Every structure is written in C-alpha cells, then in structure tokens.
Sequence to fold (313 residues):
Amino acid sequence: MKKILLLFVVALMVIAPISVSAQSEIKVVLEGTEIVFDQPPVIISDRTMVPVRAIYEALGAEVSWDAATRTASGTKTGITVSFTIDEAKVVINYNEVEIDAPAVIVNDRTLVPVRALAEGFGVTVDWDAETRTVKLTNTNPPVETKIDGLINKVPTIYDYQGQINAENKPNGYGTAYFPDGRIFCGSFMHKYSKDGFLFYTNPLTGIKTAQWYDEGKSTGYVEMEWPDGNVYKGAYKNGQFTGYGELYMADGSSYRGEWINGVYNGKGRYDWADGSWFEGDWVDGMRNGQGTYYDAKSKQSISGSWEDDAYVV
Fold:
C-alpha cells in the first residue's frame, strides 16, 4: 500500500557475479560540462553506472547517506531521489520505481544507473556510443513557484517546489505547501496531486499524521506519531484505527494486528517491553478466544482459551 519513500556497482555477489565492462573510460557531460569523478563510471550488465554523489552534486542536490539502510539520497527543490544498495528500485518522493540494475558499491563508492538517477530530477539522458559519452540535459528541472489552484474546490494560492508543465502547473514530482500547514510530497499529473503522502500536524494535540494517496484518492493508510513518542502505522477509517495496523509505544511495547474503531479486535500480537507476548484473539481490547501467552520472566508459555483478558483453566 505504502510506496513509500529512495540511491545506489559492485558488492561482489558470490551467488551471481556482476559483469563489469573494462572498456575505455566513459565520460559524463551535463549541459556541455564534463563531470569529474574520483571513481570512473563503469558498465555493468550493459547498464552505465555512475558515482551517485558526483552526479547529485553536479545537479545541485543535497546528498545524504543512511548507513543503517545503506541508502543514498539526493534532494533538490521539492524532489528526493533515493537508492538502496542491492535493491532494483529507485524511490522518488515516496514513489517506488523499478529499475533494471540495482545500486552497488565499487571501491567504496556508491554507483547507480545514470538514467534512473537523472530522470528523477527531470534530466534527459543520451548516449554517444562513438565517444562513449553520457550526455545529460535539463529538460524538466524542478522549480520554486506559486500555484493558483483549487483545494477542496476553494481557490487557493500555495507554494510549490518541483516539476511543472507549460502552464506553470504541478506535473511530475514535487512538494506542495498549503496555507493551512499541510504538505503533499509525491507526484502530480496535470496540476492534481497523484501518488504520495499528505503530511499535517494537529495544532491542538501535536499529533503528526502522514496519509497515503493513490491516484489522487486517500487509501486509508496512515502513519501517526504522538508527542509522547507512540507511533501507529496502518489502516484508518472515519477517524479511527480500523483494519490491520501496528502500534509502537514509547515504553517499548507494541501491538500488531486487527483493529475496529480504535480498539484491538480480531487476530493480533501484543509484545510487552520485558519480552513477554500474547498472540491470538482480541475482543474490545481484551484477550478473548484462542491464544498463546509467553512469560519472559519464567520463560514459559500457555496456550488455550481466554476470556475477558484471563486464561480459562
């Protein structure tokens, strides 16, 4: 449901070795200026792979690296393009796009398919086989502008960063900043929001909410964070958790399972902070039906029937 959220040529894979071309040097030229690399671009399995940081910096993007997830990201004017090592996808403003060659590491440098990287920022890629040159041309780069549009059928002027069409309307990837504090980050088509997250913070409760939209319509999937550190990810309907969802509490406990109107109902698992857990049936927030409880202190478990949160002997 969530497409959520992102960048990276050879971590030698024992099972399936990658074929790297050893031909003459490949040049990359952006708007007529050659980009200088400390690790030259290479061809791997017929795909031109380039060092991600050098290309990002040449395009004027801010570069970041998440060591935990091995993800390289570049952000520029409302667009974030991310690659994760060994994953055959690029994530652009939370939209996942499949690519035919995963990001890899060569000589401690992250290399990614040049076409996937460039097109995320509205750059056209051409290949000159005779000179072995990749030519990059800014054809639809992101811009900062104000948009005169309709929000809930009300004429509204809002700030926008991203790609636009000839009529100065959002078209492609971008981020919209609305006067009421809401932010939509994702993709747009013919001025309308398409796929992405709508972010907003309740000024009274401080609860942060990210709601996923698909083809311009809410999917009912949300991610919520409370000021006390509790986090919920899952289904949301009529202002309540309804369907499958996961609640992670600041004290280290969690619930992953089914909900009805904001209460545990159906199959689910509750984990306490001390390592104890229960997995089974829930009714109105209590253990009712069949299930198994594991006690971390005694390292023993019991399975069977439960009623009103108590084990039925």
Notes: The domain at 27-138 is CATH 3.30.457.10 (Copper Amine Oxidase; Chain A, domain 1). The first helix runs from residue 52 to 59. The chain has two domains: 27-138, 143-311.
